[in-house]
## 1
Amino acid sequence: MRCGRRPVVAGTPFRVARATRDADVARAIDVTAAAHRVDRSMLAASIGAGARSDGREVWLAWDGDEAISALWLARAEGTIGVMEMMTPERHQRRGAGRRLLTETLAAIWDASVDEAILLATPAGRRLYESVGFEVVDASLTCFRGLDDDVLGAIGQAP
């Protein structure tokens, strides 16, 4: 999916902040692991390893002191790549993901940015379209070997 303009920030009550400390990145890993229903050690070794280097950033939506949604980004040559955005099921449909995505993109979208891009699962497509992303390519995917909980988390319920 592609968005060619800075989105309007959603008016929901959640606080959004960039992860600037190791403890914030650890919370983002926890949120992402909970949403994917996977072991956090895999995420810590992959996306967590370079979370704040070489054009990569992590942002969180907070409900009080609780991190409830995580957004992993990479920037290169005029493009913001949304690498991963996850909200655990118990926090979905409350506006945290919408606030996180729109406020983060609005905060980092400057004159050098031409577009934001992302790959969407069926579970996230409606949200992304509602904030200005457009489908540029669609394909049917098949995931083998994943349990029913993981398939449900990405909108591919068995």
Note: The domain at 2-153 is CATH 3.40.630.30 (Aminopeptidase).
## 2
Amino acid sequence: MLQGFQNSVLTSLEFESFLGNLLVALVCGFVISIVYRIIYRGPHYSTSFVQAMVILSMITALVIMVIGNNLARAFGLVGAMSIIRFRTAVKDTQDIVFIFFSLAAGMAAGVGLKSFALLGTILIGGIFFGLNKFNYASSKKQEFLLQFHSSLVEGENTYLPLLQKYCKHNKLINVQAMGDDDYELSFQVLLKEKQMRTNLITDLNKIHNIKQIRLYYDDDQN
């Protein structure tokens, strides 16, 4: 009878620990997903990916609790997981980082290091916010690809002064014949100021023998 009472107490303690670890993993997953939603800038935002990060932390915690210190369970789970084929391609490097972020938080919660899981999630999330706020690692150069159609003979004397006016330097990188006396010119240009791109396009558009003006740039520079 005493042994049964002890077993019931032990089971109760294990159940409380189980729920506590999963709850911490859930909180960490939510925090990670919120950070991801705020700082993500790419064109491939996925609602299912954000939701998966929350669940991934909990699943990782559950797997770690199931394995425990049992080596046989670890090998068994590795064999079971090897059957699953993951065919979804991760298109953004940052997505891979957040996947590992969720896994790490779930592992910390799964082994019972709740404070480590919560504190690590908050600190790493704060670093993500800081890097995003100060645009760390963003290019300081304002390089663009400028394309337009023009006559090489008549157009050169008209567009070159404008390129010299608005650009620190310009480099002709491609010339493609489009028809009779019509060529598509591609320039790599470094603007003196990012705001000058509108003025450059406006002034080029005023030249009668220049048409189909296109200026390509990275969205992260906006």
Note: The radius of gyration is 29 Å.
## 3
Amino acid sequence: MGALDDVLLPVFVGQHWLVTTQDVLDHGGSFGDIHRRLRAGRWERVDRSVFHLVGAPTEWATGVLAPVLSAGPPAMASHHAAAALHGIPGFGRGTPELSIPRGTEHRRQDLRVHTSSDLDRCDRVVIDGVPTTDISRTILDLSRRSSDKRVLRAMEWARRTDRASWSNLIATLARHARRGRPGIQRMRRVISEHAHRDEITDSDFELLVLSLMREVGLPEPELHLRVLDGGRFVAEVDLGYPHLKIAIELDGRIHLDEDVRERDLPRQNDLVLLGWTVLRFTWKRFTERPDLVVAEIRAAIRTAGSLSA
């Protein structure tokens, strides 16, 4: 082997016996070096600008990593391939599957390629040398076509093995929620139905409601909105539209305490006297009738808009 082969050996070992054109250039090689090794039968091209060392092992992960390397950052293994890499039970190794940013292309008949407009909202993890979507994003992607029962099993496994928590899953849901985003509705429904009340913090509740509002296309509210009357602090509301004077309060666990309720009432009265519309939603109402939560927020926005017109 030449000097170039020596310096590339650790790269091959770390990438399932694959190197890219960029790897070669970064280690002092040239396009001519690549062509000579291909002609000599020492390397074989397995994807665009990706080469495999002939005679070295070819594993399932090799087939997943090759198109990810070819597509380049921020491409990642995703969906069922990511589930298999994470080790989520019930998702075996199958066709290599990856996500790439919308606006880029990478097509091969033996691949499943998803274009994504929100790949930048996903944390990148490396599993067995393969850049992969993080566990919570992977579960969201699985929610596109998997049943509620299968998604719940994936969530329970992730929580049981300390790979994710309800808070992690809810934060991912809120980051990715938008109208028409595949998987959002199922993931929210499964979380709402199965996240026991004593495991959901008030902040989690806020993010779940925010994700629902984004999912149905409601205007984006401000989170933890501070309301002032001149220089006097009146209240901090969970979600709100200051220009419409609409406050949305979410009554989680802490609001069951009598002292907290006593503090809430004068604050709510202050808001009403200043012309604010105050909507209050409990966990029970949100989980059992999310459609009514949406309808009431829409009605408040419509009424406030007509009054200010």
Note: The first strand starts at residue 18 and ends at 20.
